[in-house]
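Cross-posted from the bioinformatics board.
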Amino acid sequence: MTLKLAVIAGDGIGPEVVDAALAVLDAAKSKDGFAYDTTRFPFSAAHYLETGHVLEDADLDTLRNFDAILLGAVGGQPNDPRLAGGVIEKGILLKLRFCFDQYINLRPVQLYPGIDTPLKNKGPEDIDFVVVRENTEDLYVGMGGIARERTPHEVSEQTMLATRFGVERCLRYAFDLARNRPRKHLTLVHKTNVLTYVGQTWHRAFTEIAEQYSDVQTAYHHVDACCMYMVTQPEVYDTVVVPNMFGDIITDLGAAIAGGMGIASSGNLQPDGTAPSMFEPVHGSAPDIAGQNKANPIATIDSLGLLLRETGRIKGDSAAVQCGQRIGDAVRKVTSNFEGKSLDRSGYGTDAVTKMVIDAL
Ligand code: NAD
Ligand code: IPM
Ligand code: MN
C-alpha cells in the first residue's frame, strides 16, 4: 500500500527540520520497499501574513484524506502583534488536534547513549519514560472570556475542563501503554490538592481503572513535586499520564533533561483511526536560530519514525513499521557517537546530523 503523508513544514526552523526528516525517509524507504507519497501544505504564520488564510474547514476536509500528518513547527516571533491571541497556535495546531480528535499526545523522554544531560550523575538508564499528555481538554478548550477589556475593572476567565469520557479514554490508553512496557508502572500527575474538581474526576477514574489493570503498578504525584523528581530522580518514572496544560510544561522539562528541545519527538494520536494522527517535534519554530543550519533535526526525524510505526500499525502496513524502526535505530547509532555532547549545541549543524543519520541507515 502507499502511505499518504501530508506535510506541514510551517515557520522558522520547521521547513529545515522537515526537509531533514524527508531526506531520511527517502533514504530509508528503498531498503524496506514500502511506498509513500507526500503532499505539502503551506499553513503557517508566514502564509497567514501573506494571504490572510490560517486553516479553513475545507483544508481540514482535504487533510482528513491522508494517512498521517508530519508537522515541523508553526508560529512567528512570540511578541509579533500581528500574530497576537494565538491566531496561529490555536488556528492551526490546536484546531488540528481538536478537529481530528487526536486525544493522546505521546511524548517520549529518553536520554540516548552518547547525549549529554544537565543532570549530574544520571545516564540513559535513569531517564527513560514516556508521557501520555491528554490532548483535547483542560485549559486548552478555549472556554472562558474577557469583559470590561482595557478598563480598571477588566475581568478574564479561562476554564480548566475535564470530562469523565475524555479523562477515561486517556487513562485507558496510558494503562495499556504501561502494561506493554517492561516496568509496567504508571504515574498520574495532577494537582488534586488545589484543583479539587477536575482533580477528582482524574483521580477517581484513575483509581477505578487501575482495578482492571492489576499487573500495572501505580503512583500519584502532584505536578510541582513531579518537576522536582524529574530533575533529582527521573528514574522513578516509566509511564506518566497528565492533563494537557501540565503535560505541556513537564515535557519541555523532559526535553531539557534528555538533551535539549531538538531531541524531543511527539505524536498527536487518534488511536481509534477516525482521523489522521499528526507527528511533530515538541519544539517550536525557534526564530532565534532559523535559517542558520543550527536546528537539531533529531526531534523531527524521530517523530517521523514514530509516525511510521504508529500509522503502519493502525493500517496494518508492516513495511512502514519496519522502516520506522530502522529510522529510530539509525538515530540511536548516530547519537551514541556523540560522546556526551549536548546535541542542540553540538555545532554539527542540521545538514551534518541529517547526513549522519542517512549514513547510519
Ligand atoms: P521554541 O521551542 O521554538 O524555542 C525554545 C528554545 O529552544 C530556543 O532557544 C530555540 O533556539 C531552541 N530550540 C528549539 N528547537 C530547537 C532545535 N531543533 N535545535 C536546537 N535548538 C532548538 O519555543 P518558543 O521560542 O517559545 O516559541 C517560538 C514559536 O514557536 C512561538 O510562536 C510558539 O508559539 C511556537 N511554538 C510552536 C510549536 C509547534 O508548532 N508545535 C511548539 C512550541 C512553540
Ligand atoms: C506544544 C506547544 C503548543 C502547546 C502550543 C504552541 C499551542 O507548546 O506542542 O507543546 O501548548 O501544546
Ligand atoms: Mn509546549
